[in-house]
Amino acid sequence: MATSERELVLQRELPFPRxxxxxxxxxxxxxxxxxxxDGFRNENVAMDFRVGGAWTFDMVGPDGARYPNRSVYxxxxxxxxxxxxxxxxxxxxxxxSIVLEETAGGTLITLRQLYDSQAARDEVxxxxxAIEGGKQHLAKLDNYLREHGGLAAGTGTQLALYxxxxxxxxxxxxxxxxxxxxxxxxxxxxxxTPQHAAEWQRRWPLNKFPLLVDGERDLAESSIxxxxxxxxxxxxxxxxxxxxxxxLDVRFMDxxxxxxxxxxxxxAVGGALTGVTAKREEALAxxxxxxxxxxxxxxxxxxxxxxxxxxxxSLADCAAAPSLFYADWTHPISASxxxxxxxxxxxxxxxxxxxxxxxxxxxxxxxxLGAPQRD
Length: 375
What we know:
Elements: E1 7-14, H1 18-26, H2 28-34, E2 41-47, E3 54-60, E4 66-77, E5 81-87, E6 92-103, E7 106-114, H3 118-128, H4 130-147, E8 159-163, H5 168-179, E9 184-188, H6 194-203, E10 211-214, E11 217-220, H7 222-232, H8 244-273, H9 277-301, H10 315-330, H11 338-349, H12 351-360
Parallel strand pairs: 8-9
Antiparallel strand pairs: 1-7, 2-3, 3-4, 4-5, 5-6, 6-7, 8-10, 10-11
């Protein structure tokens, strides 16, 4: 069978230099803002842009249906050619190539998808509207470039986050960054990185982390950092709703997890860190009482909800994930709270939090109450 019978080819000329188009197609903070047909958005984004690396995301349709996507890069030739295999993680659907050619008027983009058979190609055309979707896809790229001509998203500077992977509040911000594939430099605070500690203390003498640095702007407090990211460095996953009333619900749940789950857990940890048995036991008993009340309230509140504040993952879930993760280590969530236990399991399965948990695994010996052999 001729290759042309198995191919789907789309072209569009855009009035932009190919270096700019290449950047829009390969930098996570840009590609995730326009990639996909009209009405679709991308969530759970992770991009490892190198040959052999994978780009994974869930494409969410206008009706809320989710479509897992996984691409593995086979060839990267900046700024002219990109080749990758694309599928859903279970199987490969097609091999795709993107070629950028300079023209007198800008750049000609050629998208090719090569399928195993003509029948497979025809199915995506007839069943999924691949041709019209591809045209919408390129039109969205055109519009994005017209709106962001210099592609200087936000302040145009490299973000830096000071914190520690095992820190619950650091994890809260990491989840937000990972959700949107936001580029940043992580500056770990520990005995092996004294240069980071000195700069962190200079910028924030209260010695609390995390601390986000965006150019000359320093931002402390995890909730403020996440809201700032949405305003200045937005991505495909909106962590705070545009509707003001819905946003209040999200903020309330964010405060609930910080104040009524995270704080009692940290009280127990503080008691254990004293090394005094009596203080350890007293702090743990206090935390257990507070956490039990929080668990009971959450069991009722979460009934019928996918996430903390409703159907969409939000700032509240960024707070919930590390809160419940460590709280369950401190005072286990009993079987009498099945809804809460199921919610904690969903959080652990979320790729952004799963990544944060894995990155912190090597530090579990630091948990003063003793880390269980699970999670």
